[in-house]
Amino acid sequence: EKTMLRATGGVNTHKGAIYAMGLLCGSIGRLDPVFDVDSILEESKKMVRNVVQRDFDPTNITNNDSEEGLG
Question: Assuming Cys at both sites, which of 35, 48, 54, 56 could form a disulfide with 39, CB separation 3.0 to 4.6 Å?
Answer without folding.
Answer: 35
